[in-house]
Write a structure and sequence with these properties.
Blueprint (H helix, E strand, L loop, with lengths): L1 H52 L3 H42 L11 H24 L4 H27 L3 H28 L3
Helix pairs in contact: 1-2, 1-3, 1-4, 1-5, 2-3, 3-4, 4-5
Length: 198
């Protein structure tokens, strides 16, 4: 009877570890998808904004590239600081609970989190850059960027829905409307400001 109880306890512990590992993985995947989505929308919006006042492909690509680098650095630094703060709190908690003994290998790595965040942002940001890179004609280029971003938004929206176990259609609609609004607002306001000679 006691051995059955021990086996039951071991099985429950394994289930808890599996659930914990899965939730940790899902959390990292969600963060990666959100980072890629941020890179996609912010870089595309920057390119659309500059495209509203300058039709030159080189200027649009340089603006997008600057957005990619600045955004990836910002995401990496923000993630590093955030995860390091969490790391410090968890180390202090482990020391209190175990009398100074800590198992740091189980804690999140601020450096890995920063690199992952920068890579995810860059992955999203590269989509509008590649879409615009080979199209000389201004109106066609704008259309290609919108189409490529829409396709990527659909993919990211689907991934978010699957990872978050949310309704797929609602997730897609939210992501698409958000991305389109960001590009349209940036284009519109930049056009408005640019037409007044600033």
């Amino acid at each position: 009877m006691e051995s059955n109880n021990n086996n039951l306890n071991l099985d429950m512990e394994k289930d808890q570890e599996t659930t914990f590992d899965y939730s940790k993985r899902a959390q990292w995947l969600r963060a990666a998808v959100l980072g890629a989505n941020d890179g996609l929308v912010s870089t595309a919006s920057l390119m659309m904004g500059i495209g509203a006042v300058k039709q030159d492909v080189r200027i649009m690509l340089l603006t997008g590239f600057a957005g990619l680098v600045a955004g990836a650095c910002s995401m990496a630094i923000g993630e590093f600081i955030s995860v390091y703060s969490q790391y410090d709190i968890e180390v202090a908690q482990m020391k209190r609970e175990s009398g100074g003994d800590t198992k740091k290998e189980k804690l999140p790595s601020p450096t890995q989190a920063a690199i992952a965040s920068a890579l995810a942002f860059s992955l999203g940001a590269i989509v509008p850059l590649l879409a615009a890179a080979f199209v000389k004609e201004y109106k066609v280029r704008i259309g290609v960027i919108v189409a490529a971003v829409t396709l990527a938004l659909v993919m990211f929206g689907w991934l978010r829905a699957v990872l978050g176990k949310a309704p797929v259609v609602k997730s897609l609609v939210r992501v698409l409307i958000g991305g389109w609004l960001a590009m349209a607002i940036t284009f519109g306001f930049t056009k408005l400001v640019g037409s007044h000679g600033l």
